[in-house]
Amino acid sequence: MIQNIITSKTRVKLLLKFFLNYQTISHLRGLEAEFGESSNSIRLELLNLENAGLLKSFPKGNKKLYYANTSHPIFSEINSILKKFVGIDQIIDQITSKIGSLQAAYLTGDFAIGKDSHTIEMSLVGDQLDHPLIDTLVEKAENLIHRRIKCIVLTNDEMIQQNIDQPTLLIWKADQSIN
Question: Fold for domain 87-177?
Fold first, then answer.
């Protein structure tokens, strides 16, 4: 869908990287290694996004670090479009509101660092969650978004322990909407 609107695959990767998890900070060589693309194509897209005001940068040593401009007037809309592209909005609608005493939902794995993947890894945090219902809802969400969902259920203590080992991105919290 989004590839039909934004024809540059590099630009789509950069938008996912910086706008899905807007706390991401990265530099050209790191992006080159992550994307497996030439530094020139990435540099051009970074320059375009920075000139448009969507990205900001600052020097650190001999590197120029880039990050999302969260105060840009269309930041929220881009973030929302990317969540729809990935299917996070469908996952939230299908899973989080129906499974019991869910406290929070986190993206883990590639999407937590803003990297596109065919598999969405999630951690659901709560007590006494309905595991069979979660499995059914995950399957339904997978069919809606055409991506595999790897979902684990954790208690608060288990999530704190896991949080030490890998990056996480909070996407839903009880009584609160995460933008």
Answer: Beta Polymerase; domain 2 (3.30.460)
The residues that bridge with 124 in the sheet, in sequence order, are: 105, 153
Task: Determine the longest span between alpha carbons in the chain, in angstroms.
Answer: 52
Q: Which two tokens stand for residue 42?
A: 């990435």
pLDDT in tens, 140-149: 888 878 889 9
- The β-bridge partners of 64 are 59
How far from chain centre, in Å, is Cα 152?
17
Do 102 and 133 touch, CB atoms closer than 8 A? no
Say if residues 26 and 92 touch (Cβ distance below 8 Å): no
pLDDT lower than 70: segments of the chain: 1-5, 7, 96-97, 162-165, 176-179
* Ramachandran class of 146: left when φ > 0, alpha when ψ lies in -120 to 50, beta otherwise: left
Burial of 163-179, coded b for 16+ CB within 10 Å and e otherwise, reads eeeebbbebbeeeeeee
Domain spanning 2-68 has what CATH number? 1.10.10.10
Distance CA 115, CA 18 (A): 9
Helix (H) and strand (E) counts for the chain? 8, 8
DSSP string, 39-103: HHHHHHHHHHHHHTTSEEEEEETTEEEEEE-TTSTTHHHHHHHHHHHHTHHHHIIIIITTSSEEE
